[in-house]
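Practice set, problem 2.
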Amino acid sequence: MTHPTPEEEDNLFRLLRQVDIAPAASQRAMAAATGVSLGRLNALLKSAIARGFIQISDRDSTDRRQRFAYTLTLKGASEKARLTDRFLARKFAEYDALHAELTGSTSGFVPMNNRTNLMNNLSPIPELYVSYDSAQKLKVEAADLVSHDLTPRQICDLELLMNGGFNPLKGFLSEADYDGVVDNMRLADGTLWPMPITLDVSEGFAESLEIGQDIALRDQEGVILATMTVTDRWTPNKAREAEKVFGADDSAHPAVNYLHNQAGKIYLGGPVTGIQQPVHYDFKSRRDTPNELRAYFRKMGWRKVVAFQTRNPLHRAHQELTFRAAREAQANLLIHPVVGLTKPGDVDHFTRVRCYEAVLDQYPQATTSMSLLNLAMRMAGPREAVWHGLIRKNHGCTHFIVGRDHAGPGANSAGEDFYGPYDAQELFRTHQEEMGIEMVDFKHMVYVQERAQYEPNDEIADRDNVTILNISGTELRRRLAEGLEIPEWFSFPEVVTELRRTRPPRAKQGFTVFFTGFSGSGKSTIANALMVKLMEQGGRPVTLLDGDIVRKNLSSELGFSKEHRDLNIRRIGYVASEITKNGGIAICAPIAPYATTRRAVREDVEAFGAFVEVHVATSIEECERRDRKGLYKLAREGKIKEFTGISDPYDVPENPELSVETENVDVDNCAHQVLLKLESMGLIKG
């Protein structure tokens, strides 16, 4: 097989580019734009059509000289993206050689591994989208392809792949790139990239594909966003990924939990061809692609831009931190909050954006802007800080604020923080020259009452003679939950008002009581008694989601395999979360034997209110003795398969909010224990 010469590759690149941007052009215009004769153009067209890069069709035109129309195929769009890189690499090399001949030294413009380091913060960066006309034709072609319905996290990743936010990635990582990123934060070609961006799918879906096959990537409503050519398919070592990327294979880390319990078992890799961006109906004027932000910075004349990453509401300490960062870098300020997936339990992005907008007038309008970033965070601490820096570099920023415990997920299973408070700053500092974006590091900010100002905690020399005030995130949540005062030195009144609208005092919030235990343990009986007691108190609607009731009305088609039992519990969790979100009380009483599924339900509910897990700790022997339905007897005889406690495991809750014993204790007493717990948590009034 003979390899094409650079001249042949350049001609093919120019042809594919011309067909993409001007599919309706005449052959004469196409030849002129490509820089070849009409005869050479025809030869190029025939070759490209034969290789499957271009599709030919009859043109609906009265001009007899333009009988045919040409459009890029999916394969052609992928080839154009590949040739774009090779074309630019050769041109950069030619320029560097000419610079060396004229000056005797290298230009310094040719990057060692990829061209993105060449670009300043104002010039456009590559996107993976095809032109509008090509996209309309690709939609029709892609409709016949095998489809993958993207998860919310995958949609976030795909959007940033397509719009250049993840530049230099051209798609989901290949296996070689994945291995390099996991092991040493570098792609196979040596380019710095700290976070695996992979398309995780089920085993069944992966087995249905062939290497080289094109698939359509759809959002959750079935809209085709892109196509992908599958070049790699592998089973990852997820324990290794957890250790290397997140520092520990510990499911207390939300990303590790996602990796083991939600992500598909198989990874696919390959280049992506963008057809259209995901649709966002909220805060449209605040959402900008990297190139849109770069164009804005060009228009405003901003040569230096410092980005502030946040997934929390802005309080006065954040304002002081950003003011100091802009002064230190002598730069304009971009407030760039994440509105994709963050940590379970975080304030929802709708509330946060309202909070940001409420305090924007506290910033100088001429030097401050805000834009929303649809990023799915991994909470990977040091690696995440480097990743965030590269993403902000792609968005046109020259500086990036890295604070204390940047993107930290909190405590591990042993109760210790996953990362040190300044680990992220140290790793960022190691790589910032290569990244091409400068870190502005800041310590923990606290309020000095005597001076009525915020100062870095580590820099207060007279700390023994002044009053230092601070409110932690935990303390803020407690004050909101209990309706206590939040002082103005800590936050802006407008922010507190927005937070109180979303998070009223606990006694006015919805919540879920989730009973779990063996069959026959007494869950349903206690749940019924609790429901009656709560209805007697009044104030909020109460809904009972008993296991048998749900099986009859919501899950009648499900069996009792692990997959179906998990699905049944997730359905219960979804309904409970909706009840909680709307201010009601949900009482759930399934067996729910698996800890990972209970955790998933907890995360669903805690996005809107409290989740109270009650372990009905009746022994298996007592449950078997009470067995009115004869289920345990049938399970012992092997007539019921996968029966919890007999032939299938039960994960005993490690840290339930309450554990109740039912042996020799009446039902009313057990229900009263739950009421007392709810009262102590502030969920009901005493």
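Problem 2, part (b): a different protein.
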Amino acid sequence: MRTDSHRHPNSPLTAVRNLGILAHVDAGKTTVTERILYLTGATHKRGEVHDGTTVTDFDPQERDRGITIFAAAVSCDWDGHRINLIDTPGHVDFSDEVERSLRVLDGAIAVFDAVAGVEPQSESVWRQADRHGVPRIAFVNKLDRAGADLDTAVESIRQRLHPAPLVVQLPIGTQDGFRGVVDLVRMRSLLWADGRDTVEEGPVPDALRDEADRRRRQLEEAVAELHPVALEEFCAQATVSAQTLTRALRDLTRTGDGVVVLCGSAYRNRGIEPLLAAAVAYLPSPLDVPAVRGTEDGAVRERAADPAAPFAALVFKVTATATGRLTYLRVYSGTIGKGETVLDTGARRSERIGRILRVQADRHTELDRAVAGDIVAVVGPKTARAGSTLCAPAAPLVLEPPTVADPVVSVAVEARSSTDTDRLASALARLAEEDPSLVVRTDPETGQTVLSGMGELHLEVAVEKIRRDRGTAVNVGRPRVAYRETVARGVSGLVYRHVKQDGGAGQFAHVVLDVEPLESAADGGHGGFEFRSAVVGGRVPQEYVRAVAAGCRDALAEGPLGGHPVTGLRVVLTDGATHPKDSSEMAFRTAGRFALREALRASAMLLLEPVAEVTVTAPDDAVGAVLGDLAARRGRVSDSTTRAGASVITATVPLAELFGYATRLRGRTRGRGTFTTRPAGYAPALSTASRRTPVR
């Protein structure tokens, strides 16, 4: 595979890696990051999650809860390379942080638990990386744990993630006796002695020679099946050299046709050096990824990772600190210096760059400039938000922003004291600015301020942030989920005439609609909206057809059951009529809106509620209580397996039934049960096809 780095071998960008650490919660992402920082000399003491001394989990809530909540950027140097790392959250409620990070990364290290293998959120973040086309290598962590098994973890990668796992290491020792690995590419041993941070290189142990030869042969065969150069050498020489194998592994990683699998124990500082070497060798530099694409005056433009090109950068994170507002950028092209002016193309305003900072979690080093390939924070922009494009004023460009998921849980919030009302409003606005997946609105009926987010924990963290950072006492209402409405059985031939005459030019529009359900796997089987026209003979001009479509979209905001958004339907405009003087786009848009509202009232409607896939790990003696509780919560069990002396139960449960589940599960399992969730779309809230009782 030919890349830009081959054409520019002397470019400093070939020595840059912009990488993310991805994993399920508790798989060891933050510990891996800490060990990388320690080994590269970026820190002088190993931070521990359980002690609250990690660099990347610097927020008080992260240290209190023992999980990563906010994506944290750090930088380090290794073997002549600059590595910019983003430690991402592993909890499903903070998947939007992962989405924004993946948008600006060139590669990633996926961390898996050697006992649990691929867990639900591991699979979710893997799919997110697939959507962004981010190449990955895999690190099977915690090989020192009881029940750890590399082969079982690799098989779960093969079955659940469906890549071709290319295992390049063989563990030396098992569980407590794990002390090193055999490097199958160069056929050498790498050992870490107790109490020492350095690795000792040596020959393959005699006891593992046969097994290492067998696994090296398996690796050669797997690579030869996927890579033509390796296949040619394998056929000619019946083996593949280490040099060819390395090139082939790099190509397969960057095309996504294979994933290199390494192993180790980050907690014991074993396996990190070869992981860093693999990240440098196999994952891409900014020159190895396609040029970023954006739009300029409606035309698609490409910007190469060239410091001499016009400046273009994407904002992926905004935070407020005690010293000011930090705007995190991925610079895709060009160079920016302190004091220069850039254009925020979304807000259409100029911003001055006051300071440029190299980020080390909550610590910063000031820079004079940032160039293509850099991930930095800047001080100065006042309106830029996550997804904004900052570019050279003389060469405007709009880069595609990260997608933002729709919130699924809401709570009502109010200040306990009337004197804190303005402070609360300011704090909520700041929260929504920093985290686009948080939405603040005012309920038009109750006048309450409603905060919506991705889950119960997401909202708990947001409210606690207001209390801690702003010192504002807040009352919080019971969480509510975001219902949807859909069409179970539609109507045909609904006629609607919009006629309005109040002096002067009137309004006239005549439309005939068919409404039917639209099945879509993208939203739990009830997704999307589709509009098409079947009008013949020009009875409704095209500009009026578009107006009818816009009116129908207006009507989707509130359904007839309880004012919830409507989804999962197809509307067909079958006929209509116009008036030579009184017809207009406004008239047909109004007709489309009222016609669809009337059609929905005449249709059999179905209430949808968000559901989640819940994976519960519980001791065998508590399985009965767990299953009974899931049934009481309207859960549908889809799988049950036994793993390392515990039962793992997978079920689909309505999100509304999961509030407070953590406390209930602890009580039923005497504190030994754990669970994880991930969104599973929407499902009917009732067994009947229609419902006429408003739901609020």
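Answer key, part (b): The longest helix spans residues 209-226. The longest strand covers residues 604-619.
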